[in-house]
């Protein structure tokens, strides 16, 4: 099974054409020039994939890919 950070990374590349030399867990959405619309759409992707609820605005440009993954993982445990 893919890790949450891998799902985030793959969605950014495959669905939204986001590329970066470094897409490690510590890179932020802002570093990748991901806008708020993509973050809303990514929230929906993650909700469907992992069965969690991510309220609008929970994924912010300041979050790193790893922090976003941790947020999703914490919500999965709470379900």
TrEMBL record:
<keyword id="KW-0596">Phosphopantetheine</keyword>
<keyword id="KW-0597">Phosphoprotein</keyword>
<dbReference type="Pfam" id="PF00550">
    <property type="entry name" value="PP-binding"/>
</dbReference>
<feature type="domain" description="Carrier">
    <location>
        <begin position="2"/>
        <end position="76"/>
    </location>
</feature>
<dbReference type="InterPro" id="IPR009081">
    <property type="entry name" value="PP-bd_ACP"/>
</dbReference>
<dbReference type="InterPro" id="IPR036736">
    <property type="entry name" value="ACP-like_sf"/>
</dbReference>
<dbReference type="GO" id="GO:0031177">
    <property type="term" value="F:phosphopantetheine binding"/>
</dbReference>
<protein>
    <submittedName>
        <fullName>Acyl carrier protein</fullName>
    </submittedName>
</protein>
<dbReference type="InterPro" id="IPR020806">
    <property type="entry name" value="PKS_PP-bd"/>
</dbReference>
